[in-house]
Amino acid sequence: MLKCNRWQFKKNIFGIVRDFDNLPLKPQNDKPKVGLVGEILVKYHAIANGHIVQTLEEEGAEVIVPDLINFFLYTAYDDCVKYKLLAGTFANKIKSQIFIHIVEQYRNTLEKALNSSKNFNPPESLKELIALAKDHVSLGNITGEGWLLTAEMISLIKHGINNIICLQPFGCLPNHIVGKGMIRELLHSYPQANIVPIDCDAGASEVNQLNRIKLMLAVAFEKIKEHK
Is 46 exposed, middle or buried (0-12, 13-18, 19+ CB in 10 A)? Predict the structure, then answer.
């Protein structure tokens, strides 16, 4: 990353966005958007989450998954939180800030490219995600996905993606606290949200998981009909 040709990187990013903007699009106004959040493995690994993306698409939904890089920025920021609230060291805080600064410099290029796009929205910066989360959950929640999971749900809602599936692995307690445990708080602030938690566990019933997905989608399709 440090040795990357920034000019070439910028050229590639703007070229990619331009190429995608030029692709012909078919209007999908009757297709609900569903955000996918949760523990990092079950969120991104198809086998771990029971091919949930494929299931949602077969049911007629468009799936939105937050950026993977957010997790690494969140993990780096943990050292800043540890220094402020716990027993973290100043040296680790500085190292984390340097890493975050470098990554955000590259993300700024992506943000500029997406701001010029007619079809895509730029991702929030780490600072913006922190601002979204801190009014609802303490930034001291740094176990597992911590406050980032809550921030991602709020970000999706603010972008008009009110249908959200929160994936929880193996009875993971930290994920239950900042994921399932935050649903009531988020519904209080965003009553239009349609959030459903789903356990990704070998002992969980596949039929029960599918029923929860279908129920969430039924509400999503009904809201689309109401706004027609």
Answer: exposed
Q: In this structure, are residues 95 and 85 in contact, taking their beta carbons and an 8 Å threshold?
A: no
- Tokens 């307690």 correspond to what residue? 173
Q: What is the pLDDT of residues 76-87, one digit of tens each?
A: 999 999 999 998
Closest-CA residue to 54 (of 67, 68, 36, 66): 36
pTM beyond cutoff 0.85: yes
Residue 30 CB contacts under 8 Å (≥ 6 apart), including other chains: 224
- Point out the least confidently predicted range of 91-100, 151-160, 178-187, 199-208: 199-208
- 167 secondary structure, DSSP code: E
**Residue 51 contacts by C-beta under 8 Å, 6 or more apart in sequence?**
none
- Full strand arrangement of the beta sheet holding 163-169: 62-64, 33-38, 163-169, 194-200
What is the helix (H) or strand (E) element at residue 52, kind and residue range? Answer: helix 52-58
Output DSSP code: residue 27: -
pLDDT tens readout for residues 149-192: 999 999 999 999 999 999 988 777 888 888 888 999 999 999 99
